[in-house]
Design a protein that fits this description.
By secondary structure, the chain is an alpha/beta fold. The chain has one domain: Signal recognition particle alu RNA binding heterodimer, srp9/1 (2-Layer Sandwich). The chain contains 2 helices and 8 strands. It has a 6-stranded mixed sheet. This is 60S ribosomal protein L38.
């Protein structure tokens, strides 16, 4: 469920909670708004800002486990080399190797997937003889 937060202080308090899994920074080219989206256990919290400097400061003050990815443009995320630029952030809680994923990298064990899907892992039905 989406929920809009209007206060910066309240957004940072939500980011410090244990159920906060990942934060995304979305920059809109048309309206020049910057949306900070934070995934909680129950809600997707959104903070809308007009000033990009404030958004960068808030992104730096987020705890490292809550940092997700930054996306420019108002469209879906695409692989590298497309028109939409995407900067991917990952975090590792308990070590582990990294695997190549569709939208960046993610820790093998101990980290959160945060909207990343591994390449080549599809549920295929076995062939009948």
């Amino acid at each position: 469920m989406p929920s809009e937060v209007t206060d910066i202080k309240q957004f940072l308090e939500i980011a410090r909670r244990k159920d906060a899994k990942g934060a995304r920074l979305k920059k809109s080219n048309k309206s020049k708004d910057i949306k900070l989206k934070l995934r909680g256990k129950r809600f997707l919290y959104t903070l809308i800002l007009k000033d990009s400097d404030k958004a960068d400061k808030i992104k730096q003050s987020l705890p490292p486990r809550a940092v997700g990815r930054a996306k420019e443009g108002g469209r879906k995320a695409y692989p590298a080399g497309c028109a939409v630029k995407e900067q991917v952030f990952t975090f590792v809680e308990a070590g582990g190797s990294r695997k190549l994923c569709k939208r960046g990298t993610r820790p093998d064990k101990g980290g959160h997937a945060m909207d990343f899907q591994e390449i080549g892992k599809k549920n295929k039905k076995p062939k009948k003889n």
